[in-house]
Amino acid sequence: MLRLSGVIGCVDVAMKIMLSLLLLTFSFVSACAQAEHIDRIDIVDYGTYTARTEGHLTAPGTSAGRWSTLGNIQHAMTTQTVPAQLGTRFGFSYVVVGEPQGMLVSLHVVNIYPSPGLNNPANPPARERDEYDRAVHVGEELYTGYRFDHDWEVVPGTWTFQLWYEGRMAAEQKFTIVSP
Protein backbone atom coordinates (compact mmCIF):
# COMPACT_ATOMS: atom_id res chain seq x y z
CA MET A 1 0.00 0.00 0.00
CA LEU A 2 2.82 2.32 0.79
CA ARG A 3 4.33 1.67 -2.59
CA LEU A 4 1.09 2.57 -4.43
CA SER A 5 0.73 5.87 -2.59
CA GLY A 6 4.31 6.75 -3.55
CA VAL A 7 3.50 6.14 -7.23
CA ILE A 8 0.34 8.21 -6.95
CA GLY A 9 2.34 10.98 -5.31
CA CYS A 10 4.87 10.91 -8.20
CA VAL A 11 2.07 11.02 -10.77
CA ASP A 12 0.53 13.96 -8.90
CA VAL A 13 3.85 15.85 -8.93
CA ALA A 14 4.39 15.00 -12.61
CA MET A 15 0.89 16.28 -13.47
CA LYS A 16 1.55 19.53 -11.60
CA ILE A 17 4.85 19.99 -13.47
CA MET A 18 3.15 19.27 -16.82
CA LEU A 19 0.36 21.72 -16.01
CA SER A 20 2.90 24.37 -15.02
CA LEU A 21 4.86 23.86 -18.25
CA LEU A 22 1.68 24.03 -20.29
CA LEU A 23 0.64 27.30 -18.62
CA LEU A 24 4.14 28.70 -19.12
CA THR A 25 4.02 27.77 -22.82
CA PHE A 26 0.62 29.45 -23.29
CA SER A 27 1.88 32.56 -21.48
CA PHE A 28 4.95 32.71 -23.74
CA VAL A 29 2.88 32.24 -26.91
CA SER A 30 0.44 34.90 -25.73
CA ALA A 31 3.29 37.33 -25.00
CA CYS A 32 4.77 36.70 -28.46
CA ALA A 33 1.40 37.23 -30.13
CA GLN A 34 1.00 40.52 -28.28
CA ALA A 35 4.48 41.60 -29.35
CA GLU A 36 3.57 41.26 -33.05
CA HIS A 37 1.38 44.20 -34.03
CA ILE A 38 0.74 46.77 -36.73
CA ASP A 39 0.16 50.30 -35.39
CA ARG A 40 -0.50 52.16 -38.64
CA ILE A 41 0.63 52.84 -42.19
CA ASP A 42 2.43 56.15 -42.72
CA ILE A 43 2.32 57.82 -46.15
CA VAL A 44 5.86 59.07 -46.80
CA ASP A 45 5.40 60.80 -50.19
CA TYR A 46 2.70 61.08 -52.84
CA GLY A 47 2.41 62.49 -56.32
CA THR A 48 4.20 61.62 -59.54
CA TYR A 49 7.06 59.15 -59.76
CA THR A 50 9.60 57.73 -62.16
CA ALA A 51 10.60 54.07 -62.10
CA ARG A 52 12.03 51.30 -64.22
CA THR A 53 9.63 48.47 -65.05
CA GLU A 54 11.47 45.23 -64.28
CA GLY A 55 8.74 42.70 -64.94
CA HIS A 56 5.08 41.83 -64.66
CA LEU A 57 3.05 39.57 -62.39
CA THR A 58 -0.37 38.26 -63.31
CA ALA A 59 -3.23 39.79 -61.35
CA PRO A 60 -6.42 38.23 -62.74
CA GLY A 61 -8.77 40.24 -60.51
CA THR A 62 -7.59 43.58 -61.91
CA SER A 63 -8.57 45.57 -64.98
CA ALA A 64 -5.09 45.32 -66.52
CA GLY A 65 -4.78 41.62 -65.63
CA ARG A 66 -1.27 42.19 -64.29
CA TRP A 67 0.84 44.54 -62.22
CA SER A 68 4.39 45.64 -62.73
CA THR A 69 7.42 45.04 -60.58
CA LEU A 70 9.50 48.20 -60.39
CA GLY A 71 13.05 49.27 -59.69
CA ASN A 72 14.70 52.64 -59.10
CA ILE A 73 11.46 54.24 -57.88
CA GLN A 74 11.95 58.00 -57.54
CA HIS A 75 9.50 60.59 -56.22
CA ALA A 76 9.31 63.31 -58.88
CA MET A 77 6.72 65.82 -57.58
CA THR A 78 4.33 66.14 -54.65
CA THR A 79 0.87 66.70 -56.09
CA GLN A 80 -2.68 65.39 -55.96
CA THR A 81 -3.43 66.73 -59.44
CA VAL A 82 -2.12 64.44 -62.18
CA PRO A 83 -2.18 65.02 -65.96
CA ALA A 84 -4.19 62.47 -67.96
CA GLN A 85 -1.28 61.52 -70.25
CA LEU A 86 0.20 58.23 -71.37
CA GLY A 87 3.42 57.46 -69.49
CA THR A 88 2.39 59.33 -66.32
CA ARG A 89 3.11 57.36 -63.12
CA PHE A 90 1.49 58.45 -59.85
CA GLY A 91 0.87 57.01 -56.41
CA PHE A 92 2.41 57.09 -52.96
CA SER A 93 5.18 55.59 -50.89
CA TYR A 94 4.44 54.27 -47.43
CA VAL A 95 5.81 52.43 -44.41
CA VAL A 96 3.96 49.83 -42.32
CA VAL A 97 4.66 50.78 -38.69
CA GLY A 98 4.64 47.98 -36.11
CA GLU A 99 6.66 45.24 -34.44
CA PRO A 100 8.75 43.31 -35.09
CA GLN A 101 10.64 45.07 -37.89
CA GLY A 102 10.83 42.91 -41.01
CA MET A 103 7.76 40.83 -40.14
CA LEU A 104 5.81 39.82 -43.27
CA VAL A 105 2.18 41.02 -43.29
CA SER A 106 -0.58 40.92 -45.88
CA LEU A 107 -2.18 44.17 -47.04
CA HIS A 108 -5.35 44.38 -49.09
CA VAL A 109 -4.94 46.99 -51.85
CA VAL A 110 -8.03 48.73 -53.24
CA ASN A 111 -7.90 51.09 -56.24
CA ILE A 112 -11.13 52.99 -56.95
CA TYR A 113 -11.53 54.59 -60.39
CA PRO A 114 -13.95 57.27 -61.57
CA SER A 115 -16.99 56.33 -63.63
CA PRO A 116 -17.21 54.75 -66.18
CA GLY A 117 -14.18 52.86 -64.83
CA LEU A 118 -11.30 51.25 -66.67
CA ASN A 119 -12.49 49.42 -69.79
CA ASN A 120 -9.71 47.11 -70.94
CA PRO A 121 -10.84 45.69 -74.30
CA ALA A 122 -8.82 42.52 -73.57
CA ASN A 123 -10.38 42.04 -70.12
CA PRO A 124 -14.04 43.23 -70.08
CA PRO A 125 -16.20 44.43 -68.44
CA ALA A 126 -15.22 47.93 -67.27
CA ARG A 127 -14.15 48.07 -63.63
CA GLU A 128 -14.59 50.90 -61.17
CA ARG A 129 -12.31 49.17 -58.64
CA ASP A 130 -9.47 46.69 -58.46
CA GLU A 131 -8.57 44.70 -55.36
CA TYR A 132 -5.68 42.40 -54.58
CA ASP A 133 -3.51 41.28 -51.67
CA ARG A 134 0.15 42.17 -51.29
CA ALA A 135 2.71 40.75 -48.85
CA VAL A 136 4.97 43.45 -47.37
CA HIS A 137 7.55 43.78 -44.61
CA VAL A 138 7.03 45.94 -41.52
CA GLY A 139 9.39 48.93 -41.59
CA GLU A 140 10.20 48.77 -45.31
CA GLU A 141 9.42 51.80 -47.49
CA LEU A 142 7.15 50.65 -50.33
CA TYR A 143 5.28 52.15 -53.28
CA THR A 144 1.82 51.66 -54.73
CA GLY A 145 0.41 53.50 -57.70
CA TYR A 146 -0.48 53.44 -61.35
CA ARG A 147 1.02 54.28 -64.73
CA PHE A 148 -0.99 55.16 -67.81
CA ASP A 149 0.24 52.72 -70.46
CA HIS A 150 -2.91 52.49 -72.64
CA ASP A 151 -5.57 54.94 -73.79
CA TRP A 152 -8.33 52.97 -72.01
CA GLU A 153 -6.60 53.64 -68.65
CA VAL A 154 -6.61 57.44 -68.96
CA VAL A 155 -9.87 58.26 -67.16
CA PRO A 156 -10.21 61.79 -65.72
CA GLY A 157 -11.70 62.21 -62.26
CA THR A 158 -10.88 61.13 -58.71
CA TRP A 159 -8.69 58.05 -58.30
CA THR A 160 -8.48 56.61 -54.78
CA PHE A 161 -5.80 54.21 -53.53
CA GLN A 162 -6.41 52.43 -50.22
CA LEU A 163 -4.40 50.02 -48.07
CA TRP A 164 -6.32 47.76 -45.71
CA TYR A 165 -4.98 45.64 -42.87
CA GLU A 166 -7.12 43.02 -41.10
CA GLY A 167 -10.40 44.49 -42.31
CA ARG A 168 -9.70 48.14 -41.57
CA MET A 169 -8.50 50.89 -43.87
CA ALA A 170 -5.03 51.93 -42.73
CA ALA A 171 -4.07 54.43 -45.47
CA GLU A 172 -5.78 56.31 -48.29
CA GLN A 173 -4.55 58.71 -50.96
CA LYS A 174 -6.70 60.44 -53.59
CA PHE A 175 -5.63 61.94 -56.90
CA THR A 176 -7.50 64.12 -59.38
CA ILE A 177 -6.72 63.14 -62.96
CA VAL A 178 -7.16 66.14 -65.29
CA SER A 179 -6.94 66.63 -69.04
CA PRO A 180 -3.71 68.46 -69.94
Task: Write up this protein.
- There is one protein chain.
- By secondary structure, the protein is α+β, with helices and mostly antiparallel strands.
- The chain is 19% helix and 52% strand.
- It has one helix at 2-35, and strands spanning 37-58, 66-77, 81-83, 89-99, 104-112, 129-137, 141-147, 157-165, 168-178.
- A 5-stranded mixed β-sheet has the order 3-9-8-5-6, with no helix packed on it.
- Strand 8 (157-165) and strand 9 form a beta hairpin.
- The radius of gyration is 25 Å and the shape is globular.
Entry summary:
The chain has 180 residues and is an alpha+beta fold. Helix content is 19%, strand content 52%. It is built from one helix and nine strands, in the order αβββββββββ.
How would you describe this structure in keywords?
five-stranded mixed sheet; 19% helix; Immunoglobulin-like; 1 helix; single chain; alpha+beta; 180 residues
State mean pLDDT (0 to 100 scale): 85
Q: What composes the largest sheet?
A: 5 strands, mixed
Radius of gyration: 25 Å
Q: What is the element string, with H for helices and E for strands?
A: HEEEEEEEEE
Structural class: alpha+beta
Q: Under CATH, the topology of the largest domain is which? A: Immunoglobulin-like
Distance between the termini: 98 Å
Proportion of residues in helical segments: 10-25%
Q: What is the element layout, followed by pairings?
A:
Layout: H1 2-35, E1 37-58, E2 66-77, E3 81-83, E4 89-99, E5 104-112, E6 129-137, E7 141-147, E8 157-165, E9 168-178
